[in-house]
Structure formats: structure tokens, C-alpha cells
Design a protein that fits this description.
Length: 201
């Protein structure tokens, strides 16, 4: 090999490392850079404007008004329910009283019918039948809560008795009921009919 050829070959070998280095540098330049570590996100801060504050206050006021309206409506409904319940009870009680008062003359007539029989007619089938009817009628009144007013031998009570006669009776105390002319009745604490009585002076 001539001297010239040797020199050319040496020059080519010297160029190869430079070209390899340039190629490596180009590869490193093309390679993507490693992603930077993400820093923790800072909390966002909100700034409330005057307009937003006024809007929130208006909504809070409206909510309070709606709550008050609801509470008033609930109270009104509760009062209405109680009032109607009381009205129903009063209506029933009044209807019951009216019905019972209309039935009391039947009691009087049965009592008068039995009074017509003399003692010797105690075994009369008609009297026994009338007694059974009268007993059944009194039982029905009792089941409805009706009671008779005790009067004979009791002090005169203007809240329960209606005096139509006064008599002199040495055996009875002063102002004492000696006879009942018409039976009086009560329903609980309410007087259905005053007892018509004769009172001793």
C-alpha cells in the first residue's frame, strides 16, 4: 500500500468518530425530555362580589319567608282540624239530646199506663206486657247514658227541680221534695228535662 493510500485511510477513520458523535448528539436532541414532576395544585380562592352577596341575602330572606308561611299554614290546618273535630262532637251531642228529649213523652205515657192498673190486677197479662215494654225502654235510655233525677226526699235544687206546688207536711223537712209529678232526666252532667215536683214548706 502506498503512502498516499495510508493517509487517506487514516483520515477516513478519524472522521468516523466525529460523525458517530454527531449522530449521537442528534439522537439525544430528538429524544423527548422527561416530564417535570407536577407540583401540588394550590386551592382556588373564590372572591364573592357585592352582587353575588346581595343575591344570596335575597335568597336567604325568601327562604325564611317561605318557611314562615309553611309554619303558619301548618298551624292553621291544625286549628281547622281541631275546630272541625269539636264541631262534629257538638253536632252529634246536640242531635243525641234532641232525639232523647223527643223520646221522653213515651216514658211518661208508659208510666201513666202502668199507674192505671190497680194492685189486684198485678197478674194481668196486659199489665205484665206493659211492664216489660217499660223496663226495656228504661234499659235503652240507660245504655244511651240517660239517668233519672233523684227528687223525693231530697232538698229542692233549682238546677234540677221545677217546683209547681208547695204543701204543708210535718213529716218532711222544710224545702224538701215530697212528690214527683213528672220525672226529670239527665245526660251526664246536662239536664235533659227538669223534674216537676211538689215541695214541702
Amino acid at each position: 500500500m502506498s503512502e498516499k493510500e495510508k493517509k487517506d485511510r487514516e483520515q477516513e477513520e478519524e472522521k468516523l468518530p466525529d460523525e458517530q458523535t454527531a449522530s449521537d448528539n442528534a439522537s439525544e436532541a430528538d429524544a423527548p425530555e422527561p416530564a417535570a414532576e407536577a407540583s401540588p395544585a394550590e386551592p382556588e380562592t373564590f372572591t364573592v362580589t357585592k352582587e353575588q352577596m346581595e343575591k344570596m341575602e335575597a335568597l336567604a330572606k325568601e327562604l325564611s319567608e317561605q318557611k314562615d308561611a309553611f309554619l303558619r299554614l301548618a298551624a292553621e290546618y291544625d286549628n281547622y282540624r281541631k275546630r272541625t273535630s269539636k264541631e262534629k262532637e257538638t253536632t252529634y251531642a246536640n242531635a243525641k239530646i234532641d232525639t232523647l228529649i223527643a223520646m221522653l213523652p213515651v216514658y211518661d205515657n208508659l208510666e201513666r199506663g202502668l199507674a192505671q192498673y190497680k194492685d189486684e190486677e198485678a197478674e194481668s197479662p196486659h199489665r205484665k206486657g206493659l211492664e216489660m215494654i217499660f223496663s226495656q225502654f228504661k234499659e235503652s235510655l240507660s245504655k244511651l247514658g240517660v239517668t233519672t233525677i233523684d227528687a223525693v226526699g231530697q232538698p229542692f235544687d233549682p238546677e234540677k227541680h221545677n217546683a209547681v206546688m208547695h204543701v204543708e207536711d210535718e213529716n218532711a223537712g222544710e224545702n224538701t221534695v215530697v212528690e214527683v209529678l213528672q220525672q226529670g232526666f239527665m245526660l251526664g252532667e246536662k239536664v235533659l228535662r227538669f223534674a216537676i215536683v211538689k215541695v214541702a214548706n
